[in-house]
Fold this sequence. Notes:
The chain is of the alpha/beta class. It has helices spanning about 1-20, 30-35, 80-85, 110-125, 140-150, 180-185, 190-195, 200-210, 220-230, 240, 245-250, 255-260, 280-290, 305-310, 310-325; strands at about 40-45, 45-55, 60-65, 90-95, 130-135, 160-165, 265-270, 295-300. The radius of gyration is 20 Å and the shape is globular.
Amino acid sequence: MREWWIQVGLLTVPLIAVYLHIPPPHISPTLNSWKTAGAFFTFKGNHIFYRDSLGAVGSSDVVILLHGFPTSSYDWYKIWDRLDQRFSRVIALDFLGFGFSDKPRPHQYSIFEQANIVEALMAHLGLRNQKTNILSHDYGDTVALELLYRSEHNKTGHLMISSLCLSNGGIFPETHYPRFLQKLLKDSGVLSPILTRLMNFVVFSKGIGAVFGPYTQPTDGEFWDMWTGIRINDGHLVMDSILQYINQRLKHRDRWVGALTTTTVPLHLIYGPLDSVNPHPQFITLYQKLVQRSTVSVLDDHISHYPHLEDPTGFMNAYLSFINSF
């Protein structure tokens, strides 16, 4: 028996060593086009990718898009053109540790730093004093709530927020159920760096596919684009650090939920009800109880955690109805 384990170990070690040197996938033409249309700015020595599109003539409205975990600004590609037709400026970024942005390690990733980056980007674009609409998803919801808190408390450098539209995110820790792999990575301590190195396309695609609806699954190309965005700059190696945002949500719940429940900024929620991470009706019931000033759009029953990718038409109809209501 002892010799058997030695043989397994001798076989496993070189296989892991080979895997650790597998380069990231090639960037697809569509993902490369997204990158080419964007630019980078520097925040505290790190390069942050963003897109800034000049859209509708005659409109003065600006919208910034805040993506979710573990993906990137590319999540918004299906609704970008329709946003362009409505807003004068459409802006999106890859948060630090995501997509084409730098992914420093070791690094203490935090929601507060990501909010600082959003404010720095808007200042970089000359829009610090411009009223801005925020459209967010998942991880981006929590960044948006920190930006809302700063705006409500008139913090230095805060954004002037015209409206906030949230979508499927862990706004309330008590109704948020992270995936098993997320819990494993964020809570495994010294084992986390080993687990992140063993992340691969098969594990990733199975995990991310589980939060899409059965009839709205990504194509193989879309799965690969998501995975490529993670693997660029070795992003899979920082996932355990980024996932500490789940603990930050719990620690700062009063700050962020408090901002949401007391603001006078126009609020809306677009919700895919098949979401197992923020399940129906538990999540939506609590949201409507606590955030009574907000309007809500619940999409079709088969739409899950990524509503803007699963039902871009329904998502945009809901969002434009909200934007045009005030």
